[in-house]
Amino acid sequence: MRSTVAAKALMAVTGLILILFLLMHMFGNLKLLASNEDFNRYAGFLRTILNPILPGDSFLWIFRIFMLLAIVLHIWSAIRVNKQRNIGTGGAGRYSVKKNLSPENTYAARTMYWGGWIIFLFLVLHLLQFTISPDLLNNPPTDAAGRAGMVLTAFSHWWFVLIYLIAIIAVCMHVSHGFWSAFATLGVNVSGTARAVLRVCSWIVAIVILVGFMTPPFLILFGVIS
């Protein structure tokens, strides 16, 4: 684990795991487009996966621990790689992808490290709002509204939608470069065609995440979903 190559591989694998989670989370959020009841049923389903093999919401807690581990390892590996790159030791220069093979000169690439910390801070706020302290906005939903009511309450505030938009844009910039970089680190960019396909796919994933995550908040804000 002292190897920069191992740290970059770990960052790539955990990054892809987090992107997959984002797409799953986005799918769940889009249940609001059907109805509040569908969203509440989906939220309830997450707490009963593998029942009765695993009692209660045991699977959900196992999944949360797994995702927390992925986040910690992703941050740790990113700090290690960035440190090695800055001090010029540990072989970071030798194993980095050449600029003519990757979009390393884009704004997203140059802000990956600090963009990651912005995303982390938003993640803390997000967990406080929807998991740890649902009454953070001093306007908790009624029991009848369920989890959908919690989401509707949060995104009825324009400033919260704005914060969410800024955070999702940061996420998409991170993903647009991280998706490409992860596969490049794992050796998939074996040709010019492969690199071009990866680049297009990275932008498609980023755009899907942006549209998918921001559609429910905007529809709630403008009263289409209530």
From TrEMBL:
It comes from the Bacteria. NCBIfam families: sdhC_b558_fam. The chain crosses the membrane at residues 58-79, 112-132, 158-188, 200-225. This is Succinate dehydrogenase cytochrome b subunit. GO terms for cellular component: membrane. Keywords: Membrane, Transmembrane, Transmembrane helix. The keyword Membrane applies. SUPFAM superfamilies: Fumarate reductase respiratory complex transmembrane subunits (SSF81343). The keyword Acetylation does not apply.
